[in-house]
Amino acid sequence: MNGAENPIYFAKSPDANGHRETVAEHLEKVARWAGTFGEETGQQNAARVAGQIHDFGKYSRAFQEVLVGTRHGVDHAFPGAVFLYRAGKERLRAIIEAVNGHHDGLRSLEAIKPQILENLRTDQVLRCPSGKDASLNGGEEYETAIRAFFRDFPRFSKTDLVMDKEAFSSQERRMLYTRMLFSCLVDADYCVSAAMAVEEPKAPSWDAAIQALNDYRLSLGRGSKANAGLNALRDRLFACCGEAGNGKAGLYTLTAPTGTGKTLALLNFALRQKKRRIIIVLPFLSLIEQTAREYAKILPDIFEDHSQREYDDEYREFSARWDPPFILTTSVRFFEALFRWKPGDCRKLHNIAGSVIVFDEAQSLPGSLTGATLRAVRALCERYGCSVVFSTATQPNFSALPNLEWQPVEICPWHSELYASLRRTRVKWRVQEPTPLETIAAEMAQLDRACCIVNLRKHAKRLFRHLKRLCPKDEVFFLTTDLCPEHRSAQIDCIRERLRAGLPCRVVSTQCIEAGVDLDFARMYRALAPLEAIIQAAGRCNRNGCLAEGGLVVVFVPEAAGRLYPSAAYGKGAMRVKEMLEDGEIDIHNPEHIAEYYRRLFRDARDDEKLTDAIARGSYEDVSQCYQLIDDRCVQVIVPYAGRRELFEEIQQELQRTQCVTPQLLQRAAPITVSVYDRDSCERFAEPLFLPARRGQPPRPSGYYILRPQYAHLYSEDMGLQWPEEEENGIIF
Questions:
Q1: Are 287 and 402 within one domain?
Q2: Collapsing DSSP states into helix, strand and coil, what is residue 583?
Q3: 3-state SS track over 679-731
Q4: Are 428 and 403 in contact (CB under 8 A)?
Q5: Predicted confidence (pLDDT) per residue in 617-665, tens digit
Q6: Which among 193, 219, 245 is the end of a domain?
Q7: Which of 34, 104, 336, 701 is the most exposed place for a label (fewest CB within 10 A)?
Q8: Which residue windows are transmembrane per the record (predicted)?
Q9: Other C-beta atoms lying within 10 Å of the C-beta of residue 103
């Protein structure tokens, strides 16, 4: 700031070339890009205004003193919210909340209104909701800032401050509207502040991608080992999805059995919608790995955003913004972004608008979050120009949920015919009496190609140890989350090769094998579970329909002390199956039986009470804390998996050199990381890792541990991470 009459206000300290960006220059750039980002969300004007006002608090002596280093801890975002409140009160709620939170996170107008009124009432320095001092205090300082702002933006008018009424038809939609607006603002601010060369994305060549997809399917057909009838059904489903894709955008379901080629059929739908991007949302990392491998044979550029991805700087920026045309991500990354409150988490949201979103294996949503999740998905379709498909072999009957409007269009209305034609398995329900795991092991030992999926890791360990005593070591495999992701992938590749070669292969697993793993066994054992899990397990049995007599799925109740299920919700689903069996046999190939299961499952379903209350109060922070797709009680342990030993040693060396690890190194370590709940064992056998200190603060806990060198033997090549004398809690991550 210089000059007494008409001072120049600066937005930043001088750059490497000595250039100093003024507040006016910065606001103009951010307003332009925020408005551009808002075009797709239908918020162009509101986003432009938010960009123009967001750093209003930099028109202050306090902030200019920050730039020269004589002052610290100043909040320059809050005064922008105060300026907007003076101009339009509650009518400008969304812009006020977005501007106030663009550094610190979204807070409701109700939460900050007392400080807004206090800030206008007195010239005493106000402590803002962020915990910092307001850069402007009292009427006189605000009037000086307003004069400076209008000198820079003489055309700015209250008539610019128009809001969209329809968006506020419900509290959930109002909050999503604000998050979308917030996203436009923070992405524009980040891009301008980082001096990124933001460009309008080029329209993808969807026609070329459609041709590549058709060529790839032709090549698959020539090498297919599936029977002719199955291939004909796959062709019909593919064509059906293409026809729907040529139609209008909207909310769709695709219901089809496992093994009918849904992965490519869904891509056919998505490409033909010709939206600005395609987002494939999958519940499991194993699904992403397999889907990415297949799609990479068709599409040149696939962006993966998930916890196991190693990022360079460019890839990290893509992860923050989601502007590539084709994205594969996890349910956690996608859904939690819709309910977060921090700038970095919400930055990507505006790029979801105008997309095709495919939810594969859609049955995996937690019941207590389903209502809020589906209402957000409906809003994406109805308000933000998205086309959405929920695809699964076990389509949940979401319309049975209370207080939810859910009327999607089914892409494959003849799916009953599909199920009837694809009876590749028979089910033997052995649930009247518990079955010892020793009995299951003895039966598997007599078979060449068998798999058993159990609900708890402690059951998997017991069964695997029994089986090892009965079979040669190289014929038995263990697959649970005790193995790090890289190790699991290597085990699955080995299993796949043995099955292809016709060699004996017996697998003990938890749910991590149920979806996205294209293995094919003649016999499948499945511990009693929710019906969707049983059907998913059956999808790994006689997958290609090559067994004339069909595959056999044996559903049993393990004879074991303690609980049988990883959670109350999981146990509830299993009990609904048992309840249906009391009324007669369940036909897993009959869509009516599947629908009846979901009717029973959802009959007393309720949204999480804390989440419902947080939404009613409009508390963005509380909503974010309540909306958790995965249990956050676990910690991450980096393990010495032999296949990536050099990475483990690199982390050890960095730890010895600096006593800390960087976030980038932890990201690279994801493939050799195991999630565990036993913190006591972590403290005993592993060393906690810390992130580098900031501004003189002590190093920060990272939530990660690394197995101590003297305990490296606790990670084995056959069973992964096993604590000695572990008290197994049976929780599956």
A1: yes
A2: coil
A3: HHHHHHHEEEEEECCCCCCCCEEEEEEEECHHHHHHEECCCEECCCCCCCCCC
A4: no
A5: 999 999 999 998 876 678 899 999 999 999 999 999 999 999 999 988 9
A6: 193
A7: 701
A8: none
A9: 17
Q: What is the mean pLDDT of the chain?
A: 89
User: For 495, which DSSP code?
Assistant: H
Give the DSSP H or E segment for 638: strand 635-638
Name which of 596, 558, 595 is nearest 580 in CA terms. 596
**Contact predicate 706/651, CB 8 Å:** yes
Could you give the number of structural domains in the chain? 4
Per-residue pLDDT of 45-97, as tens digits, reads 999 999 999 999 999 999 999 999 899 889 999 999 999 999 989 889 999 99
Structural domain includes residue 128: yes
164 and 296, same domain (yes or no) = no
Q: How far apart, in whole angstroms, are the C-alpha atoms of residue 540 and residue 521? A: 6
Query: CA 106 to CA 342: how far, in whole Å?
Result: 7
Dihedral sign from CA coordinates of 621, 626, 629, 634:
positive
Q: At 595, give phi and psi (nearest 5°).
A: -60, -40
Both 180 and 239 in one domain: the answer is no
Least confident of 14-18, 200-204, 266-270: 200-204
- pTM to 2 decimals? 0.88
What phi and psi values does residue 74 have, to the nearest 5 degrees?
Answer: -110, 135
Question: What pLDDT does residue 731 have?
Answer: 35
Tokens 């939609």, residue located: 173
Position 729 pLDDT exceeds 70: no
**More confident call, 702 vs 158:** 702
Which phi-psi region, left, alpha or beta, contains residue 637 (left: φ > 0; alpha: ψ -120 to 50)? beta
Residue 593 within a domain: no
C-alpha distance from residue 570 to each of 432, 483, 614, 668 (Å): 19, 23, 25, 32
Please give the radius of gyration of the chain, using alpha carbons only, rounded to the nearest integer. Answer: 28
- In terms of Cβ atoms closer than 10 Å to its own Cβ (0-12, 13-18, 19+), residue 573 is buried
Which amino acid is it at 512? C
Containing structural domain, residue 229: 206-416
Of residues 700 and 632, more confidence is placed in 700
* pLDDT at 158 exceeding the cut of 80: no
What is the tens place of the pLDDT at every residue in 436-476? 999 999 999 999 999 999 999 999 999 999 999 999 999 99
Does 293 score more than 90 pLDDT?
A: no
CA 242: distance to chain centroid?
27
CA distance 583 to 561: 28
Closest CA to 58 of 76, 80, 34: 76
Q: Give strand pairing partners of 252.
A: 389, 409
Q: Which of 376, 392, 416 is the last residue of a domain?
A: 416
How far apart CA 81 and CA 114 sit, in angstroms, is 12
CA–CA–CA angle 460, 461, 465 (5° rounding): 115
Question: For the CA atoms of 608, 610, 611, 615, what is the dihedral angle to 10 degrees?
Answer: 140
Instruction: List CB contacts of 436: < 8 A, sequence separation 6 or more.
Output: 558, 559
- Distance separating the N- and C-terminal Cα atoms of the chain: 54
Question: Do 84 and 183 belong to one domain?
Answer: yes
The three-class DSSP label of residue 395 is coil
Whether residue 316 is found in the same domain as residue 252:
yes
